[in-house]
Design brief:
Two copies of one chain form a homodimer. By secondary structure, chain A is mainly alpha-helical. Chain A contains nine helices and one strand, in the order αααααααααβ. Chain A has two domains: 7-50, Arc Repressor Mutant, subunit A; 55-197, Tetracycline Repressor, domain 2 (Orthogonal Bundle), CATH 1.10.357. Chain A has helices at 10-25, 32-39, 43-49, 53-79, 83-100, 108-115, 120-143, 154-175, 179-196, and one strand at residues 200-202. Chain A binds a DNA duplex (18 and 18 nucleotides) through α3.
DNA sequence: GTCTATATATTGATAGAC
DNA sequence: GTCTATCAATATATAGAC
């Protein structure tokens, strides 16, 4: 017979609680005491597993690397076979997160990227996460083959998709509205439509 | 004869110190004590002018509204007559700020947008700042007249430019490199080139 | 490994003299 | 309006029993 799920280890409970609180409240605004309460753990356990709050942040950022596919990419890849549409399905996932949170919370890594300024290792780890995201999108763009012009740099375009996602999420957050997000994605779509459009004959001045 | 510049008022010294520190360290990580030290003021003066640290943040965000043209737009408008090139000159201003700070500091409002989550008034004021920015860019796009297709929504496109700026600045910050910024602007340029390209004859399948 | 109790520093904010 | 002194709360982190 099925047994009840075992309670996760203390360390992973702390990690999970921190991940959620850093996402909701930000790293500087989250106290160790709050993390402990949410994780149902004690101060002694915390400092047994982590040297400091700062080290916990770095562990959370490593954790996010593992979550890229299960939390961000897998669903888009599973439901959307067309590689170009997959890219927009990934963006749709962020739209859904905004929708579910009243347009308050989008990408937790973008938040760390801007709110932290004195922990260079944190930026390095966010950069690694961004690289993983960009590579996943780049893979889609490469899978699109010759539907995109050969001279379009896939890496640059994938980086641009991340740029648009982060900027769009930010604006949705401050406006508490999906409109700026949808507008930005609409413009990105127009750009892709152009890139994928049939060969053009440009009328030349006589 | 010329007199030495008068020392700014205590209130404006506090406001200016806060603006810079919130930009460099973020709002939660900046203590009132630091602001006072930088402003050469005392706790008593601070709470004479501001009800709380939170109210100071709101005052700083109002202050930014006044700084939009002098700090962000004026130079681009003065040096670049072409309205489309003006938009890219504005982006060039952010590139310069990144360059001058080792790719660590871009837009202070984007930072507040993501690091603050429990002060709705702060988001409202960032939204007002973003609106001003978008409107300034929108004005350029409208000045471009029929160089852009009539059916392109100027507001949506201006919002997209802000999206790209914020996302590009964020990536430059985490990578400590201008490359992601330049890549994103290059893609935005390609999109504008497309929008401004001569009327196209699309080859139709037979 | 987990617990409670606590050390030490710093936080935002206030009081009251001048 | 500006000053110093200080409050009360909270922060991260540690000590040492179990």
């Amino acid at each position: 017979m099925a047994t009840a799920a075992a309670k996760p280890s203390t360390r992973s409970r702390i990690l999970e609680a921190a991940r959620e609180l850093f996402w909701l409240k930000g790293y500087p605004e989250t106290s160790v005491a709050e993390i402990l309460e949410k994780a149902e753990a004690n101060s002694g356990s915390f400092y047994y597993y982590f040297k400091s709050k700062e080290e916990l942040l770095l562990a959370v950022l490593d954790y996010y690397v593992d979550l890229l596919y299960p939390e961000v990419m897998d669903q888009a890849f599973a439901t959307t076979p067309d590689p170009i549409e997959r890219v927009f399905a990934v963006l749709g996932g962020y739209r859904y997160a905004l929708e579910m949170t009243g347009c308050t919370f989008g990408c937790p890594l973008g938040r760390v990227a801007l709110e932290i300024s004195d922990i260079p290792q944190a930026h390095e780890k966010v950069a690694i996460n961004f690289q993983g995201w960009v590579n996943a999108v780049k893979k889609c763009l490469m899978d699109a083959g010759n539907r995109l012009p050969a001279d379009v740099d896939r890496h640059q375009l994938a980086q641009f998709v991340l740029t648009v996602m982060e900027g769009a999420v930010m604006q949705a957050r401050v406006h508490r509205s999906l409109e700026p997000f949808d507008n930005s994605v609409a413009q990105l779509r127009a750009y892709f439509r152009y890139l994928m459009s049939a060969p053009r004959v440009v009328r030349v001045k006589e």
